[in-house]
Amino acid sequence: METAVNLSFEEMWEKIMACDRTYDGLFFTAVKTTKIYCRPSCRSRKPKKVNVEFYQERAEAEQAGYRACKRCKPEEEHSPNIGVVRETIAFLVNHHKQPLKLQDIADGVGLSSYHLERVFKEETSHTPRTYLEKVRIDKAANLLRETGLTNLQICYEVGFQSPSNFYKVFSRMKGCSPSEYRRGQLDEVE
C-alpha cells in the first residue's frame, strides 16, 4: 500500500495554514529555525514560509535533525484506524483525476466498501466521496491561483466529469464561482 501523497509545496503549505487534521500523518512540517516537526493540524504559531520543509515520513524529519513537537505530538498515533484513513487519503490525492467509485477506492486500500465508508466517516466526518470532492476543489483552487488555465480545463484537469457538477461543488465549498475565486485572488495580489 502506498501512502505517499503527491502534493506540491504550496498545497502542503495551505494545509498547515488551515490546520487541516485530515492530512495528519501523510506529511510532516519541519521548521528550520526551531528544529521541530509537527502535524499539518498543529495549532502552534505558524512559521515563515521560507523556514519550512516538508517530509513524507517522521523518520525522515528525525534523520534530518528535527525533534517532535510537544504540542501536537506527531510521534503518537491517535486512533487505531488512522492507517486506513491515511491510505485512503493518499489514494484519493494520488488518483483524484480518475473517475472513482466507492468500490474503486475500497479496492485501492484493500477493504470492503461498507467498512471503508464507515471507518473513514468516523475518523474524518467525511465520506470518501465528499473527501474526494474536497481534494479536487483544493487542487482546482490551486490551479486557479497558479495557472492561466480556463475554468473548463481546470474542471477536467482535477477529475470532474461534468462542468455543471464542478461549478456546483466549487460554489458550495468555496462560497463563490471559480471565476470569482480567481478574481479575488488577483485582487489580493494587487
UniProtKB/TrEMBL annotation:
UniProt superkingdom: Bacteria
Iron-sulfur: present as a keyword of the record?
no
**What does the record list as GO biological process?**
DNA alkylation repair; methylation
Q: Which SUPFAM superfamilies match?
A: Ada DNA repair protein, N-terminal domain (N-Ada 10) (SSF57884), Homeodomain-like (SSF46689)
Q: Which Pfam families match?
A: Ada_Zn_binding (PF02805), HTH_18 (PF12833)
Q: Could you list the residue ranges that cross the membrane?
A: none
InterPro entries in the record, alphabetically? Ada-like_dom_sf (IPR035451), Ada_DNA_repair_Zn-bd (IPR004026), Homeodomain-like_sf (IPR009057), HTH_AraC (IPR018060), Me-P-triester_DNA_alkyl-Trfase (IPR016220)
Q: Name one GO molecular function term.
A: methyltransferase activity
Record domain HTH araC/xylS-type: where: 86-184
Q: What is this protein called?
A: Adenosine deaminase
Q: Recall the taxonomic lineage recorded for the source organism.
A: Bacteria, Bacillati, Bacillota, Bacilli, Bacillales
